[in-house]
Amino acid sequence: MFPLYDVLPSRKRPYITIALIVVNVIVFIYELILNDRELLVFMYRYGLVPARYTVERVREALGFSLFPFISHMFLHGGFWHILGNMWFLWIFGDNTEDEMGHVGYLFFYLSAGVFAALNQFVFTLHSTTPMVGASGAVSGVMGAYFVLFPYSRIVTLFPFFFFLTLVEIPAFYYLMIWFFIQVMNSLVGSYGVAWWAHIGGFVYGMLWGYILRMRKYRRYRY
């Protein structure tokens, strides 16, 4: 089930979502011009390496810095990696930015990425593999969308036997299925993807969405 777009038009131009996509693309282009050794150093310097904070010899080699908890979300491991993350950010980001406002949305996005990284960190304390990618922050955006726009519909490319067809799926069900897949993959220990970051980011986004919805409800009530 590959999402193509949602049916909710945004009321304002999503400047922050566009800016985030542009920054991610610029960083990825920079990655492409690095040679293999330079790219490896770049990933270890700005990617999130859990062992950097838990294993002394790794900390001595890389140095102590908290910046990777932010910088990791602007790095990507390949073309399909960045394409998938930016596509999902574009689909779910504009309406979420509408609801939160530009400044609030930027703070939310960055904090969701940090929270997602912390969640992955807890489950991979001694890993020496750099965690990179915007998927934790994007999962936060999806979690907020899940709460704020459950009755929106996601136009999805759906395989049916040997054919592909377009299906409109309510956002509530689409995102619930997506979250279930993340949980199942985390439980079976599927390697190479930060599943716990996806889960943490999504739950964080749900909490933000719930708080925003309650504030709006109280404002209209009084």
UniProtKB/TrEMBL annotation:
Pfam families: Rhomboid. The chain crosses the membrane at residues 15-33, 69-91, 103-123, 129-148, 160-181, 193-212. InterPro entries: Peptidase_S54_rhomboid_dom, Rhomboid-like_sf, Rhomboid_protease_S54. It is found in: Membrane. It is a multi-pass membrane protein. Residues 66-214 form the Peptidase S54 rhomboid domain. Its main location: membrane. SUPFAM superfamilies: Rhomboid-like. GO terms for cellular component: membrane. Keywords: Hydrolase, Membrane, Transmembrane, Transmembrane helix. Gene3D superfamilies: Rhomboid-like (1.20.1540.10). The keyword Transmembrane helix applies. GO terms for molecular function: serine-type endopeptidase activity. Belongs to the peptidase S54 family. This is Rhomboid family protein.
